Amino acid sequence: MTKLIPFVGRITPREREECLQALNAHLSSVQVIPLAEMNAAARTQAELAVVANPDPTELATLPNLKWVQSLWAGVEKLVAELPGEHIQIVRMTDPQLAETMSEAVLAWTLYLHRDMPAYRRQQVEKNWHQRPLKLPSQRPIGILGLGKLGRASARKLSANGFPVLGWSRNPTEAENVQTFSGEDGLAEILRRSAILVILLPLTPETRGLMDDERFAQLPAESAIINFARGPIVQTEALLRTLDRQHLGHAVLDVFDTEPLPASSPLWSHPDITVLPHISAPTQTETASRVAAENIQNYFETGVIPPSVDRSVGY
């Protein structure tokens, strides 16, 4: 008998159909279907759900839910909204996601390293001027967050000749990375980073982490890349730091409100590059394979995959 798994997500119909097709192609004796197509009896029997930005009121219609498999890596919204502390959250840990993110980190690091924002301004001004070129070895890159995304990005940067510094909440080690932790470690990595890459999860501790005080600890004319979550960076503090020319440029892919409102001053600031949350989109095919493996293994063994620690938010 085929087991039915509800799919709950606030995504477009096209995206939902793509996810369902990819998931079911990798499952046997199990079928993922939209929650709306499940009757009351099927909802009662459901022990797990596949989710992508789910409506918590819909998940509440599954009385025996034990865990959810997220198709997204970010889970802060799930942690905040999911009803019932007993429901375990399994985040997406697709190796392709880490590879995609590392590619984006390298691309936009090179964008800053090779002074592309300045050359763009010079083109507008019709100014023919060759700027001094630094070698990658002269440009230390700091990474805040040494999870799977941070470590993959560190490997990519190191392979391209950049010295890499890494910071995490607790002491850790990473290949070819000088690591730091704690408040003292954060101050040290900020002091030494020519380009700072933010890859931290959004938690109560990281919300508003980059404020006036911490921006001031960065070297003059340094730059930041935020590929994590918007609220980690205090927007007004960032604008103040840029306007007093302590910070050279900011590449922002994530924001407090998305899509970024047309009224936001970030759009028109000359020292900000705005991206529409494209650094590491979920790849439906590879993410669906990972999710299907977790689901199939659960029905064969009864073991729920490693889940999020709600006390720390990831």
Q: How would you sum up this structure, described in words?
A:
With 314 residues, this protein is α/β, with parallel strands linked by helices. The protein folds into two domains: 112 residues, NAD(P)-binding Rossmann-like Domain (Rossmann fold, 3-Layer(aba) Sandwich); 177 residues, NAD(P)-binding Rossmann-like Domain (Rossmann fold). The chain has eleven helices and twelve strands. The strands form two sheets. It has a seven-stranded parallel beta sheet with strand order 8-7-6-9-10-11-12. The longest helix is centred in the first third of the chain and has 19 residues. The two termini are 35 Å apart. It comes from Kozakia baliensis. This is Glyoxylate/hydroxypyruvate reductase A. InterPro entries: D-isomer_DH_CS1, D-isomer_DH_NAD-bd, NAD(P)-bd_dom_sf. Keywords: NAD, Oxidoreductase, Pyruvate.
Short description:
GO terms for molecular function: NAD binding; oxidoreductase activity, acting on the CH-OH group of donors, NAD or NADP as acceptor. The protein is of the alpha/beta class and 314 residues long.
